[in-house]
Amino acid sequence: MGVRRGPRGRAGPGMGPGLEPDTAGYFRRALETLQEGLSPEELGGAELPLGGAEPKGKGAEPAVEGAELPPSFPPLLGQLAEAFEEHLPSLLSPPSASLCLQEALQVLHRSQSPACARLCDALIGHLAPPGPAPGDSALVRGLQDPERSRLLEAAVAVSGPRRLRELFRGQLRGRLRGVATHRVANHGLQRLLDHAPDDVVGEVLQELGPALGDALSRGHPGVLTALLGACRRVPALQQEALRCLFQAFGCWEPPERRRACVGLLAGLRPFGGGDKGEEGAEPEPALGPVTLHGSLLLQHLLHFGDPGPVLGGLEALPPPALTALARSPPGSHVWDALLASPTVPPRARRRLLRKLKGHFVSLACHRNGSRVLDTVWASSSAPARAAIAAELASQRHALHSDPHGRGVARAFAIDLFLRRRGLWERLQAAPARHRGVLGPLLED
């Protein structure tokens, strides 16, 4: 059963004691962030709020995509939006009404209703009207308010490029450092970056790039991941974004420091005064605990047009560290990005995969590692699969004594590999659709 959302500041049924509004808001934003870096299985099957894809249960019917709305539905949506606009002042404060407004904006946006823009403009007009004085910004004050910030974030998420450009240049430009370091307002900046047009992203990078370390020191790494995610959409900004990010972590100069960039980014640990060894020696590349936002940063960087700096840091890590990265819940998604990114050169990918040799059993017998190994297997050539199977077959008993290992042994047909190597090789050389038909032979 998924998590049920009650009114703000209250726990839904089965969620235990009620939460304070600020605490509930933080918890909800944490779930929204988790869905970006972890799979539904790693979240324990919890329902994700506001825009996250709901995990499908076993045997559940697939969702119908592209289904048309009944003809009577759009007019009803328009009437609902008109009613919200008419009573908008009285709906801004009650927690339950605020949630209704947030959901209404999303429904109108997804249904492509023209009423979405009208309701969005009315909401922003009430919460963040242009100030009479040049230094005044009702938008910044609204983003700093724990209640109103939710409504503004929902409005920003459905606003078009023109509206976002007006909001940014009229009320946010020149104030980004204060917004990025504010415990509540920084989330509104993240939503803006998620949907901002390219020119706005460039202006944010120009103003906020030199101060990324401030947001990090205040405990707001989401600002960094949102900015890097926005720059991932704008190739022309990527080199400057990379420079600002590495400077925030203290590993841009001298170039030798960049070898340690992966460990620093993965754990969100900037170079400090005690990071150097004796006589100012640079620290060796290492990997500590991987954080969620550290994983997201690396995923974005691996999809940049030039992922070289991150690839160099990964290649500098020893094989046990790369194995630990694959076994880490957030770190395993770095491997996903490495294997899926179209900008990672095949030769660099092969060099990193070779470092996993001797550690395949450790991956197979681990929840996250086995998933990474499945992805590696799917993208490997027939000779590479044979090498992986040979290593796994040499420790067949260890595989069969572990639940994850048994699944890998069955999926890779390790028993058939041991008994009838020639047949196994012919099946692996067959197209994937044929291997599905011949599945019973693999389990024979």
Give a structural overview:
This protein is an all-alpha fold and 444 residues long. The chain folds into three domains: 78-130 and 137-243, Leucine-rich Repeat Variant (Alpha Horseshoe), CATH 1.25.10; 257-271 and 283-341 and 350-355, no CATH class; 360-444, no CATH class. The protein contains 28 helices and no strands. α5 packs across α9, α6 (148-158) packs parallel to α9 and α18 (332-340) runs parallel beside α21. The longest helix is centred in the N-terminal third of the chain and has 17 residues, at 21-37. The radius of gyration is 25 Å and the shape is globular. The relative contact order is 0.05. The model is unreliable at 1-19, 40-64 and 273-280 (pLDDT under 50).
What does this entry show, briefly?
This protein has 444 residues and is mainly alpha-helical.
Strand and helix layout:
Blueprint: H1 21-37, H2 73-86, H3 95-110, H4 115-127, H5 138-144, H6 148-158, H7 161-172, H8 176-180, H9 185-195, H10 198-208, H11 212-217, H12 221-232, H13 238-248, H14 261-267, H15 292-302, H16 308-316, H17 319-327, H18 332-340, H19 346-354, H20 360-364, H21 367-378, H22 382-393, H23 396-400, H24 403-411, H25 414-419, H26 421-429, H27 432-437, H28 439-443
Helix pairs in contact: 2-4, 3-4, 3-6, 4-6, 5-6, 5-9, 6-9, 9-12, 12-13, 12-15, 14-15, 15-18, 18-21
* CATH-level-4 superfamily name of the largest domain: Leucine-rich Repeat Variant
Termini distance? 37 Å
Q: Main β-sheet, in a few words? A: none
Could you report the average pLDDT, rounded to the nearest whole number? 81
CATH topological fold name of the largest domain: Leucine-rich Repeat Variant
